[in-house]
Amino acid sequence: MQKLILLAFLAFIGISCTTSQKLANKKPYAKLIDTSQVFAHNFTGMAIYDVDQKKTLFERNADRYFTPASNTKLFTYYSSVKTLGDSIPALRYVISGDSLIFWGTGDPTFFHHDLKNSKVFEFLKSYKRSKLFFFSDGNFTNTSMGAGWAWDDYNDYYSAEISPLPMYGNVVRINIDKEEFSPQPTIFQNSFYKKDEGTSIVRIQTDNLFLLPKSMLQKSSYTQDIPFKTSTGLTQQLLIDTLRKNVGLLHIPVPREAKTLYSTTSEDVYRLMMQESDNMLAEHLLLLCGTVIKDSLNSSFVIKTITEKYLQDLPDAPKWVDGSGLSRYNLFTPRSIVKLLEKLRADVPQEKLYSILPIGGQSGTLKNGYKTTDRPFIFAKTGSFSGVYNLSGYLLTKKGKTLAVSFMNNNFNQSTTKVRKEVEKILTWIYENQ
């Protein structure tokens, strides 16, 4: 019996030594992942690429597919860089007799609550040569919500619908300050119904009717954005209400001779999309690409065109279905995202690229992290929802290296905060030591 115990003990020591030896022989990146208790039960992938040396430094499950969440916006940004110019095309229009006929381009800035742009309003409001105004949705063949979106997110600000001529960000912004109740746009003023119970404002799923708990009217400085249900008819009503002009409806395609009105600078839209992870802006930037390519407002068409024209050299073919990453149907590999980061750095000046992305410790979704170092070192897009936390972007090490990094974590059943902090810890170690 004693011999058996001794043999078992020696075997245990042998296994422990072998395990320790294996860990000792691993690259530091691998040890950081494999010794992490946070990553013990989730699926982790990582790709690190030295962009100056053009050399892959480390890969872990880099050829496996992950749900990217908002890392998808990197692909939308790249599509926009390759397709759009310095300014956003706001309208397509023609003059026919005494009529002005116009089409939406997907431009998301028309009365957007956080992008102060009045070019479209000023153009339509001041246009005197035409007596009759007509809006056509004949170039829009998209659905109002993306494939694979969660249906029960319809009331949340991040699930604003997709439309050819978005206005007010396709959300109702509700401001409450002790009995002072003011929704924007004001056309929804009479669409709110007070009720006795509840702790938040909820829209009826199938209609633009909103239930407002009476208790909320006692709040001060309260703001909530709720997506409204889009339709061509509602767009017409919003135009009439805003312009104080009659606007008719048509359903005809954009003719070749149509002119283009431009609105704001593209860079301003990119920055807000990336730093605040704005899904509505991302979805409509894809539509804008369709406008430029073929006057076709269809996300699937744009994704197919961009993939075939610019992304054939990705290591792994992406499954890419929307502009924002709301869909769980999206699937990308870490090494394909790193390849995209390499492409972006070749097409966008470095200073501009880093200013558009969230900056660790300074801006966007990374503002509250990465504060332990003497200077910002991470410029990257995050992506998260239940069971998913990813970060992909550029890491500038203390020794002066520029690394393209994609660090993806899926299928975990713990708080996203724990995973996020562990990712931060490992990336900070890389900054200090590589």
From TrEMBL:
GO terms for molecular function: carboxypeptidase activity. InterPro entries: Beta-lactam/transpept-like (IPR012338), Peptidase_S13 (IPR000667). This is D-alanyl-D-alanine carboxypeptidase/D-alanyl-D-alanine-endopeptidase. The keyword Hydrolase applies. It comes from the Bacteria. The keyword Protease applies. Belongs to the peptidase S13 family. PANTHER family: D-ALANYL-D-ALANINE CARBOXYPEPTIDASE, PENICILLIN-SENSITIVE CARBOXYPEPTIDASE A. The lineage of its organism: Bacteria, Pseudomonadati, Bacteroidota, Cytophagia, Cytophagales. Keywords: Carboxypeptidase, Hydrolase, Protease.
